Amino acid sequence: MATRRLYVVRHGAADAFGALTDVGQRQTELLAERLARLPIGAVWHSPLPRAVRSAQLIGERLRGVPVQEAPELIDHIPHVPEKPPAAWAGVFDGYDPAEAAKGERLADALTGRFARDAEVETNEVLVTHAYQVAWLLRHALEAPRERWLGLSCGNAAVTAIEYYTGAAPSLLLYNDMSHLPAELRWTGFGPSVRP
Asked: Does the keyword Hydrolase apply (predicted)?
């Protein structure tokens, strides 16, 4: 039985313009060291600069592994619930039905391309954004579409999902930051208590 392993990672910490900060660069270098221990066959990334740069840094450490853009990994809102929780109301304020439908199509394209089994053994890294990590996790767990809300993800954190032929996906890791020292963890979250 062939297994498809996805190592879904959020880009390193970025500034307001979308460029990696010094912290984001260091986070990504440490992430690349961790990924270099695995038999990675491909690195896919969002077209946005923070993900492109993160994928480049990972590719430099994974010599000979192709690094390619995947437009399905772009940062977007994957699903707008009919009645969003009050805490999320501002995120969806002014989000019209056409934008919501486009987000749904992108989300379906993301899962259609990556959240499926493979004919041969594959190990792929997806460098993407917090909402897309949450969406892939929600999909793997067969949770309701609105459940992506609140599945937060830190910068340079690893979520690993396995897909098998004829079986439900397995969640191996979620938001794992064990490769980062304490001072580089928990970026990418709002102000809150850190576990």
From this structure: yes
